[in-house]
Design a protein that fits this description.
Largest sheet: 6 strands, mixed
Structural class: alpha+beta
Shape: elongated
Radius of gyration: 29 Å
Strand content: 15-25%
Number of helices: 9
Strand order of the largest sheet: 3-4-2-1-13-12
Length: about 350
């Protein structure tokens, strides 16, 4: 008999099999440059948000609604630069930082000279579910503004506002779901048609009015409007109805014969939203330099954690010297206030 060889079989290893070490992945050749590219892209979006197209889904308007918040990306990229010890990324961050300061630096809190003269105004979407409109009316009047404009006004709220403000605001006008209370006499009150085509058959959709206020600066055309709401859905930023109403409003404002104009309303759009271009064009002064930027972000929506100012007070031939928000009411919007000086 031949004795079997008890040694190891040639070509085989003895002992337990060891797992292979995974090979180190090769770094992507463009990975080190990614933070720099992101910094350049961020700067471009801050200075030229119009680079983002508005179709399909209106992403451009969505970006412009929350544009100031892009600045939060700067400290995140700075942390990445420190983590990677990348001097190139840190230097590249100067671009978006400068772009953000150029766009919004004037809105940061700083000392301003209080305005003693001007037209004080308050604008508020009071919510059609407001459980105590009388209390809301008194809150809006607490600072003694000359004009109070409201939206989502129900018949019950209209009665409550009129009763609560009767002593100090004897002049008022309402149309549909918008209303205006004034310390100055109002004349030439009439509805304004900004109804989008899709709502042409709805007799209850009446959300704009115009009146002439006899102010110490002379007659001022006052517009109170509530543009259609926008919706964020899987198909994108649904703003077609709002954009159509903004176009109609711009045409009305362009045809306004009175030089001094004040527009108050829930425009469902940030001031930088390109959808408001027809409105801004119609309100642009015919001559002279542009007015200086108004300090303050004054975000108004949502009231619980304001992210954007979609309530606006705009003017033609007037300079808005101060803006701010008032304490919350039962609405999902914060009241917005502005002082306007007419020279």
């Amino acid at each position: 008999m031949t004795q079997a060889n008890s040694g190891p079989t040639p070509g085989l290893t003895s002992g337990p099999l060891l797992p292979r070490r995974p090979a180190h992945p090769r770094p992507l050749p463009w990975a080190p440059a990614l933070p720099v590219l992101l910094s350049v892209l961020l700067a471009a979006l801050l200075t030229r948000p119009s680079l983002v197209p508005n179709t399909p889904g209106h992403p451009g308007s969505l970006l412009e609604t929350f544009l100031p918040w892009l600045g939060l990306a700067v400290p995140l990229l700075l942390a990445l630069a420190l983590l990677r010890r990348s001097a190139a990324t840190a230097l590249a961050l100067l671009l978006p930082a400068a772009a953000w300061l150029g766009q919004f630096g004037s809105l940061l809190p700083h000392t301003t000279t209080p305005t003693r003269y001007g037209l004080t105004t308050v604008q508020h979407n009071i919510s059609d579910e407001n459980p105590d409109p009388a209390r809301t009316a008194r809150a809006l009047a607490a600072g003694h503004p000359a004009l109070i404009a409201v939206e989502e006004l129900t018949p019950t709220a209209s009665t409550a506002f009129t009763a609560a403000l009767a002593a100090d605001y004897p002049h008022h006008a309402t149309h549909g779901t918008v209303g205006l209370w004034s310390t100055y006499p109002l004349t030439d009150v009439r509805p304004v048609d900004i109804k989008p085509t899709a709502l042409a058959g709805d007799p209850h959709w009446n959300r704009a009015l115009r009146a002439t206020a006899a102010t110490p600066s002379g007659p001022v055309a006052i517009y109170v409007v509530h543009l259609p709401s926008v919706r964020l859905a899987a198909t994108g930023f649904g703003s077609a109805r709002r954009d159509e109403s903004a176009l109609l409003l711009g045409a009305v404002l362009a045809a306004e014969p009175i030089g001094r104009v004040v527009l108050l309303g829930d425009l469902n759009a940030a001031a930088d939203d390109r959808a408001l271009s027809p409105v801004h064009t119609a309100l642009a002064a015919t001559a002279g330099p542009p007015p200086p930027p108004t300090p303050g972000f004054a975000f108004t929506w949502p009231a619980a954690f304001p992210l954007a100012r979609i309530d606006q007070i705009l003017s033609r031939s007037g300079t808005i010297t101060q803006v701010g928000t008032l304490p919350a009411t039962p609405s999902d919007h914060l009241p917005f206030t502005a002082n306007i000086r007419f020279d």
